[in-house]
Amino acid sequence: MARSGAHYTPHSRNDSSMHDSSYRSSAHANPGTAGSDTSRPSTPRFSTTRGDASYAAAVQKSSASKNPYLQAQSSNSKIKRDRVGFVTADKGFVSAKRPMTGSKKPKRGMTRRDFIMLGGLAAIAAALPIGWNIFRPVEIVINGARRTYNVNTPMSEILSKEKISVTAGNLTSVSGNVITEGKGYAYSVKIDDKDLSFDDGNNYKIHGGENITIGNGGDIMEEYSVETVETQPKLTMDGTWGAVTYVSQWGKVEKKEIRTGKTSGETADGEVTQKGQDCVLKTRNLQPKDGKKLISITFDDGPSVYTERYLQILKDHGAVATFFNLGQNVDEMPEISKKIIDAGHEIMSHTYHHDVLTKDSAERVQSELDTSYESIKKATGVETTMVRPPYGAFTEKTWAVTQGKMSASILWNQDSLDWSRPGVDKIVANSVNGIQPGYIILMHDGGGPREQDLEALPQIIDKLHDQGYTFVTVTDLMKADGDVPEDILTGKAKMPEDAIWPTELG
Ligand code: NI
Tens of pLDDT along 296-319? Predict the structure, then answer.
């Protein structure tokens, strides 16, 4: 468990889309509204933010172009300009001292009178659309009543005139209990079918034609502190037994906020900032799609002095196979491993020393995997993270110590029992009898005398060919199955960077 501190200002429980910053901005009065505009009264309750850049720019433009309406109406146009100047200077757009009315020097060849005429015409032309845009009356419907206001009239101003009766929201604790009634948002604004955040509603300027619904205000949550709690993924099994086990989902840490109310002292779950998931190992038998008669034949404990004769038989009888090489043997005969790959077969790891991995320490398990992968890559260029555990000994606990170094464990469905040298006929029968599509046959090309195998192998291939089976590599068998994730099918899947390997069983 890891915790990290952070501080949040409150926001509405009723509006999950509202971010903390929006509340903060409404809490701090904009300097542009500070008592300088007597022509637009506003109540403290619906404090406005008319100093925003677009409004200021519009007023500045209209002043600059000597809007006759504005000059006639406003006896304090200087104050207005100062206000605009203050706001715009504050925003860093123009200097407050910069002259707002045109005083360009006449160009050469023009008389002063020409300039005044041209300038006057240009000013009138420029003023018309802007004046029209600001003072054009438009209709809106507000809580069912039809009203006329100038376009761009702010919602706060409309509300101060309309006297709509609504109930303010409450100040609530982090777990939703009311701390103070009526200390929430004063009202809510819905434009047509869209609910606005409190600030967006308060700052809204009408275009005309809207159907506006003013409703009760939403609650405001008390201020709270945040701690982030991490939950580690667990290792879980999907299925009880099968010839293959692979990572069907990588584990991820869950990060969740725990909020502690500064007023109430209550704690409550906050947002899940990172969704977590368990690591899932799927264990099952492969089933080729559409009932295709595909099987895999596999050879363990090589490479050895026998391996090249296996390659010749496979070639002569038109079959491909998967070889589970031991790292220590690969290091002794790297050229044999290379020949396996060059002949179109597949190599996966059988560990380095043929340990019973269930009895190994975590460090030893990991080094058995790493060193065998390295030997195979060095000899053949092939990268693999698929493993046949020696003796088939591999439990959920062993998976838990792999640190995600293994993407799949490949066992078998048909055990030829060739290691006990039961005779050629027995090896053939053990390999062939009861076989089904998707099955994996276990044989050996190392680890002892292999003469019985060499005699049995051509018979096994021919018998299964006669039954309509096609030999494919284990990877191709997994591909034909259709359930194995894409990254696992590469044969060299590694745990993604944003994943974590669980040490705890689910
Ligand atoms: Ni073995």
Answer: 999 999 999 999 999 999 999 999
Are 254 and 154 in a shared domain?
no
What separation in Å is there between the alpha carbon of 474 and the centre of ligand 1?
17
CB 354 within 8 A of CB 300: no
101-118 pLDDT, tens per residue? 444 444 455 566 666 666
In a domain, 10, yes or no: no
Which active-site residues does the annotation give? Answer: 300, 444
**Centroid of ligand 1 to alpha carbon of 391 (angstroms):** 6
Find the angle CA(427)-CA(429)-CA(433) to the nearest 5 degrees: 135
In sequence order, which residues have a C-beta less than 8 Å from that of residue 23 and are 6 or more positions away? 9, 10, 11, 12, 198, 199, 220
Place of tokens 């899932």: 280
Q: Are both 308 and 207 inside the same structural domain?
A: no
Same domain, 316 and 444: yes
Closest CA to 426 of 437, 413, 415: 415
Same domain, 262 and 402: no
Q: How far is the CA of 357 from the centre of ligand 1 (A)?
A: 12
**Rounded Cα distance, 339 and 322, in Å:** 13
